[in-house]
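Structure ticket #2291
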Amino acid sequence: MCGILAVLGCSDGSQAKRVRVLELSRRLKHRGPDWSGLYQHEDCYLSHQRLAVIDPASGDQPLYNEDKSVVVTVNGEIYNHEVLRQRLPNHKFRTGSDCDVIAHLYEEFGEDFVNMLDGMFSFVLLDTRDNSFIVARDAIGITSLYIGWGLDGSIWISSEMKGLNDDCEHFESFPPGHLYSSKEGELRRWYNPPWFSEAIPSTPYDPLVLRQAFEKAVIKRLMTDVPFGVLLSGGLDSSLVASITARHLAGTKAAKQWGAQLHSFCVGLEGSPDLKAGKEVAEYLGTVHHEFHFTVQDGIDAIEDVIYHIETYDVTTIRASTPMFLMSRKIKALGVKMVISGEGSDEIFGGYLYFHKAPNKEEFHRETCQKLKALHMYDCLRANKSTSAWGLEARVPFLDKDFINVAMDIDPEWKMIKPDEGRIEKWILRRAFDDEENVG
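Resolution: structure written out below.
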């Protein structure tokens, strides 16, 4: 995860303002310790703190089009960048960065290109030809982003609130799946999937379709030029992620660079069930397993730092963020810069215990839709900020756009929990992988 901070249309293009933007950008340095970049055009500033996962050698930001009239600062990963490059045969790319396509797509397709991006991202794009700009955030809000307004009418954008709170009279979370256009002066939603309306879907459940969609979601996230691993608690979601990753790692570019044996990571209090289950799954899959222990006092001592980084006082989020924060520090110390995680499954499939009480499939489906819409304030925020506090990137295949479309289009009757029929929570996901050939 990188850190971006932009100040657009301020009344001050002075050196003092530039120094202030640099100062604020440094508050995000933990997100991207590999490179710092600042671009200024008149009264607009785009700064970037880079965590280099793709093309560490030449992908420093900001990024540009050919004549440098379009400037972009991006946080995230564009998984379909190679396909998108093929759609831009007349463009020359300066770097191998996956984010390099954004400026060129804007040149070719205008503001409506955002829906073409498959990935997790937040970006600010400045068109210096007319000083217009756009800001966008990924569909579910996997990457964090905030928008603020200065007293001079300027618009501020930052990956974290700590880049805005001292200089903006008002700031708020930038909504997921939205785009801000300076030409229109307002936000609009670019992500409009069928499930967003909460209409009840009727597609029959096909285990093979669901399994293949999730396998694709995991495989595309193996795109990396740096050492990586998987978070493995031993539960269903992380075990599926680890299983698919272990099976498909051998043929990837990452395996050629860093070896074909997968590394897995688990954290817990001494004797916790997560540590026991994670170890069992790791032994079954043959991963190089790293088990981290912490004490209750370690957690208490870390709370102040955890709140500083995750920027919320939500009790459940803080509680869940603390072990992830402590584990991320250990993972980064091993030289790992990216992990794949299992967030999002419970929201899509109704995995929480209270879903047992759903009176009918309509209420079940509406609740999953509402949980997905709110994820950016809870689990996505936790996963993004707990890891980026230590310059670690977390990828979440359950929140893949294509996979969500498949899973949320299934008739929710199939997701209903029916103990008398042997259907426990997330039964349809379990059944999709319930055979020796495809799980191990």
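Closing remark: Residues 436-440 have pLDDT under 50 and may be disordered.
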